[in-house]
């Protein structure tokens, strides 16, 4: 096991962006597989394309934006003092979290070939749930993250927790939205 850890850290040092993207690919792929196998007990057969969509989101969007966002945050707010940690968690959850949700639903919308109206309906139906649902997981997880995890290991730590959280995201991201229900909510 120590050999794998050493190899991972060597990759992280040599190619941090690629390594973090691959780490997120793994986390999102495993999360969707678990969601389909154990959470979505709707009788539908396993959807490999859905897992591919979730994995590519992890690789193309989550890993890359996480690399830059957390690097930026650590650069602007260095250290692990309690006020610094609380500020990072607040920024992550009040600014980054909704942006992440918009990117997540937008990515799925694009790769599934859906319309802008579908995207808007999805945001109206599920963004608030995604953001508020994440608070229960990510406020304590990021408190630990920003206080104790070395910056180079942040995305690995996040993806370790993200596997479980991705079960929720995968379910939410692939939940069908009835546009008639959205129109009724607006009335």
What features would you describe in this structure?
With 187 residues, this protein is mostly helical. The protein has one domain (2-186). Helices cover 84% and strands 0% of the residues. The chain contains 7 helices and no strands. Helix 2 crosses helix 3, helix 2 packs parallel to helix 6 and helix 5 (116-148) packs antiparallel against helix 6 (154-173). It starts with a helix and ends with a helix.
> What is the number of strand segments?
0
Question: Which structural class best describes the helix and strand composition?
Answer: mainly alpha
SSE order in H/E notation? Answer: HHHHHHH
How far apart are the termini?
57 Å
Total number of helical segments? 7
- Helical percent range? over 70%
Residue stretches low in confidence (pLDDT < 50, at least 5 long) are 182-187
Biggest sheet layout: none
What oligomeric state do the depicted chains represent? single chain
Query: How many distinct folded domains?
Result: 1
Give the overall shape, derived from the CA principal axes: globular
Pfam family, one: Mpv17_PMP22
Subcellular location: Membrane
Membrane topology: Multi-pass membrane protein
Keywords: Membrane, Transmembrane, Transmembrane helix
């Amino acid at each position: 096991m120590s050999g794998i850890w050493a190899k991972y850290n060597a990759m992280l040092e040599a190619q941090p962006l690629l390594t973090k993207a691959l780490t997120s690919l793994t986390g999102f792929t495993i999360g969707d597989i678990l969601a389909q196998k154990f959470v979505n007990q709707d009788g539908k057969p396993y959807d490999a394309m859905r897992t591919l969509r979730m994995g590519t989101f992890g690789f193309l969007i989550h890993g890359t934006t996480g690399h830059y966002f957390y690097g930026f945050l650590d650069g602007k707010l260095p250290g692990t003092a309690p006020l610094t940690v609380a500020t990072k968690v607040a920024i992550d959850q009040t600014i980054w979290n909704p942006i992440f949700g918009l990117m997540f639903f937008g990515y799925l919308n694009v790769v599934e070939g859906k319309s802008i109206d579908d995207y808007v309906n999805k945001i109206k139906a599920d963004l608030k749930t995604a953001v508020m649902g994440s608070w229960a997981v990510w406020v304590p997880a990021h408190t630990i993250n920003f206080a104790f995890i070395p910056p180079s290991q942040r995305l690995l730590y996040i993806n370790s927790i993200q596997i479980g959280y991705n079960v929720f995201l995968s379910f939410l991201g692939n939940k069908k939205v009835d546009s008639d229900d959205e129109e009724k909510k607006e009335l």
